[in-house]
Prior knowledge:
Blueprint: E1 3-6, E2 14-20, H1 23-26, H2 30-40, E3 44-50, H3 57-61, H4 64-70, E4 77-80, H5 91-97, H6 99-112, E5 117-121, H7 143-160, E6 164-166, H8 168-178, H9 194-209, H10 224-239, E7 249-258, E8 261-269, E9 273-277, E10 285-287, E11 290-294, E12 299-309, E13 314-324, H11 329-333, E14 339-345, E15 351-352, E16 361-367, E17 373-379
Parallel strand pairs: 2-3, 2-4, 4-5, 5-6
Antiparallel strand pairs: 1-13, 7-8, 8-11, 9-12, 10-11, 12-13, 14-15, 14-16, 16-17
Amino acid sequence: MVATHFQGYSxxxxxxxxxxxxSYTAYNSLPNLVENIANSLGDSxxxxxxxxxxxxxxxxxxxxxxxxxxxSQEWDYVVLQSQSQEPSFPPSQVANDVYPYAQQLTDSIRSxxxxxxxxxxxxxxxxxxxxxxxxxxxxxxTYEGMQQRLRESYMEMASTNQGRxxxxxxxxxxxxxxxxxxxLYTQDESHPSYAGSYLAxxxxxxxxxxxxxxxxxxIGSLDSTxxxxxxxxxxxxxxxxxxxxxxxxxxxxxxxxxLNYVYLTASYSNADSIAWDFxxxxxxxxxxxxxxxxxxxxxxxxxxxxxxDRLNCExxxxxxxxxxxxxxxxxxxxxxxxxxxxxxTDVLGRKIDNLDSLxxxxxxxxxxxxxxxxxxxxxF
Length: 380
């Protein structure tokens, strides 16, 4: 039995995204960079923005411009970015000053369109930590400590609101560690350089379109090597952990096979329902993620697992092709072309003559009146 996996993606995709943030989003015109990357890969991004300097989540929740833009059309994603320091503050303060307004904005997004998804912009820690608030809250005295708090807060906002995360801060940290020569900050050690914005745009492309941007030819003002490194890290950060960032994710694992039985395990994240198609409506039984399929005749079958995130109006399908071949010795060992022949097998499917031997179960061969053989399971 041979199994292969494949999952199809459309070659061209159009998405609509509204960016609600502040100067971190406005610098280097981040939404336009995302559009340029998308265009270079044959995709399209329709976008709008409201990015007043220093704007907080609470500010956007009461800002007429932001609310009007949310209701202006049916967005696939509304990007939500808080003031750069605010989500790094103590958990109790963030729970009071940030989380309620993230929920208000999410409610506005979903009131406008049933398929609108909040996409939380996980930002980056300041280059050497937050010196202005270090004394009051020591965990953010360093870049690492501030980055950790930002990650925790944005992940909590996404989880609570059943939204998704664009993990820019995670990709940012990896670039700092692997390519310290790439300067991601401007001189104020807070705002993004062009390279920093390009990295963020690459993360947003992979988050919004759920595809790699490694093949993009758009490099802006960067050299090709730097741009390629940033795109690679961005793509890997998003796509290697889609489920972690709240996106729909699925896979089918082939556990084992035994004669004409196939044992599968479904692995999926952020799905509220699943469905199976075994390629033959007469066979197959499931218990959510654990699957046993009995194929009655030889041949090639396509097993399809479909997963659904109905709140965010998304579905994905994973296909596994299985080739069923019954043991060739059956025809020679048992010459009766009609009726039934009963025998026992070991775990490898080999016939056991001594019925007292340990075995994996009892099977029988059945031929129909056209001479087609079927291997049937009788029980342990």
